Amino acid sequence: MVERRFTRILTDLPGPKSAAVFADKAKYVAAPLDTYAPFIIRRGEGALIEDLDGNRFIDFSGGWGCLAVGQRNKRIVAALRDQLDDFLHTDFTAVPYAPLIDLAHMLCERTAIRGDKKAAFFNSGAEAVENVVKIARAYTKRKAVLVFENAFHGRTLLAMTMTHKARPYKTGFGPFASDVYRLPFPYEYRKKVTAEEIEGALLSLVDPNEVAVMVVEPIIGEGGFLVPPPWFLPAMRALADKYGFVLAFDEVQSGIGRTGKFFAFEHFGAEPDLVCAAKSLASGLPLSAVVGRAAIMDAPIPSAIGGTYAGNPLACRAAIEVLKALDEDHLLQRAVHVGDRIRKAFERIGDRFDVVGDVRGLGAMVAMELVKDRTTKEPAKEMTGRIATLAVRTGAIFPTAGLNGNVLRVLVSLVITDDQIDEGMDILESAFATALK
Ligand SMILES: Cc1ncc(COP(=O)(O)O)c(C=O)c1O
Prior knowledge:
- This protein is of the alpha/beta class.
- It folds into 2 domains: about 15-60 and about 330-435, Aspartate Aminotransferase, domain 1 (Alpha-Beta Complex); about 75-330, Type I PLP-dependent aspartate aminotransferase-like (Major domain) (Aspartate Aminotransferase, domain 2, 3-Layer(aba) Sandwich).
- The protein has helices at about 15-30, 60-65, 75-85, 100-110, 125-140, 155-160, 195-205, 230-245, 295, 315-330, 330-350, 380-395, 420-435; strands spanning about 40-45, 50, 55-60, 115-120, 145-150, 180-185, 210-215, 245-250, 275, 290-295, 355-360, 365-370, 395, 400, 405-410.
- A hairpin with a 2-residue loop joins strand 11 and strand 12.
- About 50% of the residues are buried.
- The mean pLDDT is about 95.
- Bound molecules: pyridoxal-5'-phosphate.
- Pyridoxal-5'-phosphate binds next to helix 5.
- Pyridoxal-5'-phosphate binds near residues 126, 250 and 278.
């Protein structure tokens, strides 16, 4: 048992102050905006959260992966204050500003694609994905889009179509966009596929000469933290070259240092033509980016892409500080350390409880998949939910994932301390023990 230093639960959850706010939420906020934590945040610091009633939690969800550099990182707070004193908004296409251009420069320098690169900015991950498709279609003058099983690309009409999981993301929202084709993904724990089988599936679904772009998450996030085998991304690069389509990596969840490299694709020796970033890019301020080969990025006609708030100055200032923090605070190395420590704890929990079928991940992107039986691998969805609920109610927030909702994953701030990790793992292990008693 690790001593409780960072977490404390003083009230029932929600406590009385949170409960009063939840009552208003039920009345005024649309019901589909369902919430996970049974409390209302008052303040955050690093990887810690305090609620309105003084309860304290360690947050392994990191704002669903947006807080690589931690809540209220000092550099970011200072840059935002500075920007507030200058100007708030112009729309870059009306009156341009330097922070967007500086950020484009920094991102192009950090993106491991050879040759000339350019960047464009948007507000969300889904918008970045939509724009990857628009840019690739303008460049190739083709229309078809290839995606993968287990993929999550967002909730706008095209991004939702590209997303695999029907419920809740697609329920009641059809008809969907056309010309999107789904290929098998090598889900090593459940379903092995070969490069030949993927190519065969492609050829059976669509004429490859009509394919504009293949969009792939180098490590599948929402779909359950699926790390592909080493051959996979190079084989997809080879398919793109063979048939002349654009290869785009969706690194909205896996990018910005989370796996110990700036982009996860750097682990696999395969270069995309375009890459999407969002989430931790601006530490939770709405900002996404598409970075890629200059000739492809320049293909749409002037004013064909953009948006009123796209590349907002505050978000760009935050992103510049995120990129500096990754380097100067050695957060890529930290991601590897944080991931190792959490993975060891997950393996220890797996040794103790048979419900853990698989522990996997790369860098700080670590997850465990829960099954009713290690031989049949039947997903243990209810048990996963029960354990996550017990953990949050005792002080540690863990998001779930996977097509079957049976994966516990970690998207924690990379600034979390070792002692905080240990306390969080202790809470999780106790939640397993209680749930499986
Ligand atoms: C890989 C991936 N792509 C796209 C998105 C959509 O991002 P957003 O919610 O900012 O639209 C997400 C969000 O979780 C994601 O994980």
